[in-house]
């Protein structure tokens, strides 16, 4: 199943700026349900889409010789889900780019409403041919690079109700940890995920070097945080608002067993911050903080 | 501004970036060898230092500073430091004990030498340079 999410590149200024869009449709594979049962694009994958958009700019700028990989993001802020029927308008701004890394920030909107932002993202650049044939990437780029106008304002037809969907349109590869290993309610939780080569994202991520997308770990961690919260003294009080200081320090490969250690970092009335430390064979591969705000104050 | 003045903040940032206890961070500790830093941690660290001290640290600046006035091919040949390159490196990284330098040293091994103090010095230099640029402007 494709793990390429930008439907179309509308505007590209090499090494500076890129604009594109993604439709969220019943044909999408990576869907989930919100707490009211409404089908939505998996939230972390909005971040993946923005990262891929920035990557298209970088790769076309360096003539497809190097590609950025996930490294570090200072903040990924979640404003709301993108539901089936929505169109994500995407913008990535390249803050700096050289032979070794790209730094960028991004925003996703639905109409004029900001739904997801990324700030202070840093991606090391690695040789393209280690991951995928450059001719393949070039072809993928040509397929979606069709400059055009920003679809603005939102077409009125997008406000019309969608035809009913069925449960079989739900994702068959949920982004969750496999099992909880240890749980001290309100204090900590640890969980395990075995990485299978059969996971649908590996063919695109990447053909010559399958590695787990950072955003999959991110979504798994967000789901673990929600699970932790549900069985804690703070149940029902907070909602995920932001992920901070996300850092991927090593690749995760098929066959790896990933362990996530979630602990409460800060608990105050106005915010709850959970820290996730993710390891493979005792070595840190990813860390991140999940910031939760009180439900009534969540924007 | 000097190393002593910025050290407490740098120490706090390094501990935060490497997710280690602040008490484990001392001026003489090497980031990779002693504190377990990965390459992505350097990107993260530079980003946090730039933000905190409102400076710009171009990637590869430490290596560039170490090279000093030497031309690239005077500094290294085939990825290995020349005797002149090694001498320039020792002079620039004068806070690093002599024992840590190998007689034949690869360019890719230079980051292994970087200590907490190396970063403090880098910031002091960047702040001075920025102030000089601003006063010229």
Explain how this protein is built:
The complex is a heterodimer of chains A (299) and B (137). Chain A is globular and about 50 Å long. In chain A, strands 1, 2, 5, 6, 8, 9, 10, 11, 12, 13, 14, 15 and 16 form a 13-stranded antiparallel sheet that branches. Chain A has a three-stranded antiparallel sheet with strand order 3-4-7, with no helix packed on it. Chain A is of the alpha+beta class. Chain A has helices spanning 44-61, 134-144, 214-230; strands at 8-13, 17-23, 31-33, 39-41, 66-68, 72-78, 82-83, 87-97, 101-110, 113-127, 179-184, 188-194, 238-248, 257-268, 271-280, 283-294. In chain A, α1 (44-61) packs antiparallel against α3 (214-230). The model of chain A has no long low-confidence stretch (mean pLDDT 92). By secondary structure, chain B is an all-alpha fold. Chain B has one domain: ACP-like (Non-ribosomal Peptide Synthetase Peptidyl Carrier Protein, Chain A, Orthogonal Bundle), CATH 1.10.1200. Chain B contains six helices and two strands; from the N terminus they run ααααββαα. Chain B has helices spanning 3-18, 39-53, 61-67, 72-75, 83-92, 116-136, and strands spanning 76-77, 80-81. A two-stranded antiparallel ribbon of chain B has the order 1-2. In chain B, a hairpin with a 2-residue loop joins β1 (76-77) and β2. The model of chain B has no long low-confidence stretch (mean pLDDT 90).
